[in-house]
C-alpha cells in the first residue's frame, strides 16, 4: 500500500493550557512531502486546544538556518519556515496559510481554490490578516521549537467536541549547499503544499 493512500487523523486534546502541557501531548512526525519517507532533519508537531484558542508546537532539528526576510507578507517560503494550513469548512477549497520563519516573521494569507481539480489554480488573499496570533520561538543547540496560539475568533465559530477541520503542517528546510527539503504531516505526492484534498483531519476531542 502506498504511503500516500490514507489521510491521517490527529485527535486534538482539550486542555487547561500551561507551558508544561506539551510534555504529554501526542506528537506526529513530518515526512517527505512527495514520498512519505524519512526526512533529513526531524520535525514533530503537537496540537491541543482550550475554549479560546488552538495551540500548535513544532519541535525541529535545525542544524542550518536560512532566514533573511524581515517583513510580514514577505515570501518566507523561499527560505526556512514552518507552516500551518487550516480549512475550517473541510471542503478543501478555502483555507488560511500561516507561515513563520526561524526569526519569527509571519506571512498570513487566505487561499481560495478556483478549480478543485487543479491544485495550481488558486488565489492568494494577501490582504487577509490573522488576529491575535501569538508565537514563541526557542533555539538551543541544533534544536528549534515554535509554539503558536491561534484564537478561535479567527474562525466562524469555535470548535466543539467532535468538530473536524482539514489541516496540514509543513516545513521547508535548506541545507548549506542549497538543497531544499519539503516536509509534510500528510504528504501530497508532489513538491506542492496546495494539494488540499491531501490535508489531514484534525478532530477536536474532550475525552
Describe the structure.
Helix content is 0%, strand content 44%. With 207 residues, the chain is an all-beta fold. Strands 1, 2, 3, 4, 5, 6, 7, 8, 9, 10, 11, 12, 13 and 14 form a 14-stranded mixed beta sheet that branches. β6 (81-87) and β7 (94-100) form a beta hairpin. 31% of the residues are buried.
Structure in a nutshell:
The chain is 0% helix and 44% strand. It is built from no helices and 14 strands.
Assembly context of the chains: single chain
* DSSP summary: helix tally: 0
What's the helical proportion of residues? under 10%
In angstroms, what separates the terminal alpha carbons? Answer: 32 Å
**Unreliable parts:** none
> Could you give a short account of the major beta sheet?
14 strands, mixed
SSE pattern: EEEEEEEEEEEEEE
Radius of gyration: 16 Å
Query: How many β-strand runs?
Result: 14
User: What general form does the structure show?
Assistant: globular
Strand fraction: 35-45%
Structural class: mainly beta
Mean pLDDT: 94
Amino acid at each position: 500500500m502506498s504511503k500516500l493512500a490514507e489521510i491521517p487523523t490527529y485527535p486534538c486534546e482539550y486542555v487547561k493550557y500551561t507551558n508544561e502541557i506539551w510534555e504529554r501531548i501526542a506528537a506526529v512526525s513530518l515526512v517527505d512531502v512527495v514520498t512519505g519517507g524519512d526526512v533529513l532533519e526531524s520535525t514533530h508537531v503537537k496540537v491541543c486546544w482550550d475554549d479560546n484558542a488552538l495551540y500548535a508546537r513544532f519541535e525541529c532539528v535545525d542544524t542550518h538556518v536560512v532566514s533573511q526576510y524581515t517583513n510580514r507578507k514577505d515570501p518566507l517560503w523561499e527560505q526556512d519556515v514552518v507552516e500551518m494550513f487550516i480549512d475550517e469548512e473541510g471542503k478543501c477549497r478555502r483555507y488560511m496559510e500561516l507561515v513563520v520563519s526561524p526569526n519569527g516573521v509571519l506571512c498570513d494569507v487566505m487561499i481560495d481554490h478556483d478549480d478543485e481539480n487543479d491544485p495550481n489554480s488558486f488565489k492568494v488573499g494577501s490582504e487577509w490578516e490573522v488576529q491575535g496570533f501569538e508565537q514563541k520561538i526557542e533555539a538551543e543547540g541544533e534544536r528549534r521549537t515554535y509554539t503558536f496560539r491561534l484564537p478561535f475568533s479567527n474562525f466562524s465559530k469555535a470548535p466543539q467536541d467532535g468538530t473536524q477541520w482539514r489541516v496540514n503542517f509543513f516545513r521547508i528546510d535548506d541545507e548549506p549547499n542549497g538543497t531544499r527539503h519539503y516536509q509534510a504531516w500528510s504528504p501530497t505526492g508532489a513538491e506542492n503544499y496546495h494539494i488540499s484534498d491531501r490535508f489531514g483531519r484534525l478532530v477536536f476531542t474532550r475525552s
